[in-house]
Amino acid sequence: MILSNQHLHATFDDATGALSTLESRATGWRLQDRPELGLGFRMLVPLPDRRNNQVTGPQKLAGIEQSPDGNRLTLTWNHLQPQHGEALDITFVATVTLEGATLRFEARLDNRSPHTVEHVSYPCIGDLPMPSADEHLRTMMRTSSGMATASLLPRFTGRFGYWGLEQPMQTPEDPITPFLLIASDRQGLYTGCHDTSAKEAIRFVCELKPGFEIGFGEDDGMASAEPELDGQANHLEVATWHFPYALPGVSTALSPIVLAPFTGTWHKGVDVYKAWRETWFKRPPTPAWAQDVHSWQQLHLNSPEDELRRRYRELVDIGEECAAHGVQALQVTGWTVGGQDRGNPSHDTDPRLGAAAELRDAITRIHELGVKVVLFNKYTWVDRTTDWYREEGIRHTTKNPYGEPHFHPGYQYHTPTQLIGINSRPFAPTCPLSPAWRKIACNEFRKSLALGAAGALYDECQHHGGATYCFDPAHDHPVPAHIFAGDTPLGEAFREIAASEDPEYLLAGEVCRDVQFLHYSIAYLRITNPDHVAVERYIDPFAGLMVAVTAFNDRNTLNQCLMHRYIISYEPGNYKGRLGDFPRTLEYGKAIDALRRRYRTFLWDGEYRDTQGARVTAATGAPHPHYTVFRDTANGKRAVVVGNFDTAQAVKVAVTVDDSTQPLLLVQPEAPDPEPAPDEIGLGPGEVAVLIES
Which CATH number describes the domain made up of 288-382+429-525? Predict the structure, then answer.
């Protein structure tokens, strides 16, 4: 059976339903190569005395139909034969639709067996080769600090410990990623989950079979270039793992998965996701000050080890310093009882820092200075060291399949005793799917709101501390349930409460998965290396994204803020100090924001294009990697931001804007007046230049 157009050619085995071949018509890359290695689906259906009982191998089709237009196949399997035991009374129906350059896989299972279907792999590619001998493949995925990459072929980097597997396996560890790219420098394959419900956990998995030919470590080695390895078929399998936990008597639909070969850089793969995102995304209400060019300071008052750095009334001095330096927002962290990461989920004020009325008064006085106060909030954890946890909180924590609360070891602060983990305060993740827990969280949120701040930043809103499913039958949700689905009703509840009290209230979060941007206007993240790939900025050119700036001369991080339209969060002393502690960083950051205001049609209101639309080369002729492109949405003109992240050496670069004959103007944070750009631009260590089409 064939699905084919000018973009794709796919064949399916009419006896087993396996994907036999998949080819990109644009490049000729056979993404599913050898038909005999084609795969249909797999399931995990544990038996009482055999947990690892899988439905594998070819399963005979009960029916196959093709739509009259030839663009859709419906595949039906009945009475599935597992590895152990008798055939299972399960019907699995898959619909594969050819839509332009994509294949959309939808599936539904009807479980009439006495056992739970915990896991389904679908769709599956059984033999994905390199496009050519010189096109090495890597995986690319969004993480909490940009795009992460890992080598796939010919060098394979695994993730799971070798002791738990028969062959190397790679899968994203970070659950915020909604898609996986498998890419060379010239082309790739997009695999994406096109579902905003988070009703089930999804993982994209690559498996090298039968294993490494040459090993460099337990999870790193070289694949063979031959079709066989010591008599076994040598191949790479790529699958989407679903975890539906379909109980006996339950029918359920799996989340839709889209496969799309693409030609060009990784941007073309992400464009598939962007096009789908545009069909459902709506930006939440956001106060005007948070949409404009502005900067923040984050300030820490207390930790679990009792620094008690500043009393509430001393915040006014900090606010005055922010106002003097044009910093428009002050995020106050560690203001709750016990300090940051202690006493969660309490959002009570700490009497050791002053009375609640003193904090309210300080916030009011800071607002009168023109500086907005945002309070650090957290609802991800319960502190297991508190009496409230033992008496009440344990009931609201996520539970594993054995009825025990999930565990997180907590974080370490300041003292030698805690820094080596002796007296860390451990956490248990809370269950946002539980209406009882959401009621508690909302009551704590109201305490924060009542202090009169301009907003709240929900720290660690994007994850659940390693917990994925909750098995607690007392939480008024299906058992088990995917915890991440609870983040939407919790975000909706916070926004409804805030809107009723203060329509201009800002809701922000840490990192934020894409669906959370429906409720949170700004996401806080950190940059971990100079080769940071700002995939979240590319996905949403106008999202509120904020980055921590911590070093005494943090030009490189500030230059990244300019390059990627990140809001600056000044955090001297790792957010324990004052703005005056790092004057070089502060003054350079102010120069960057001034430049963004002056040229905002490009650098703030312009469309971010990452590196698309221009080329930058070094004096040697080699590509210079550190640049981004902004496009003026009114006239289409472009600006190119080029940085030198070398801390010791100067560089010379040449900038070419694609399909442009316009002369370029040169501006810099410390030289903002435009001048004609020379053919070759010199950049000293830590310098950045902006080249603008005149």
Answer: 3.20.20.80
C-alpha span between 13 and 470 (Å, rounded): 38
Q: Which of 665, 682, 683 is nearest to 674 (CA)?
A: 665
Q: pTM of the full predicted structure?
A: 0.96
For 1-18, the pLDDT digits (tens) are 999 999 999 999 999 999
What CA–CA distance (Å, rounded) separates 428 from 463?
13
CATH topology of domain 2-277: Beta-galactosidase; Chain A, domain 5 (2.70.98)
Q: Looking up tokens 């650090």, which residue turns up? A: 376
So where are the chain's domains? 2-277, 288-382+429-525, 602-693
> What beta strand segments (E) does 46-200 contain?
54-55, 61-66, 72-77, 90-99, 102-111, 119-125, 137-143, 146-153, 155-157, 169-170, 179-183, 187-193
pLDDT tens digits, one per residue of 84-116 = 999 999 999 999 999 999 999 999 999 999 999
DSSP 572-609: HHHHTS-GGG-HHHHHHHHHHHHHHHHTHHHHTSSEE-
pLDDT, average across residues 58-82: 97
- Dist CA 112 CA 354 (whole Å): 61
For residues 452 and 500, the answer to whether their CB atoms sit within 8 Å is: no
What SS3 class is residue 239?
A: strand
Rounded to the nearest 10 degrees, how much is the dihedral formed by the CA atoms of 614, 619, 620, 626?
A: -40
602-693 to CATH, choices 4.10.430, 2.60.40, 2.40.160, 3.40.720: 2.60.40
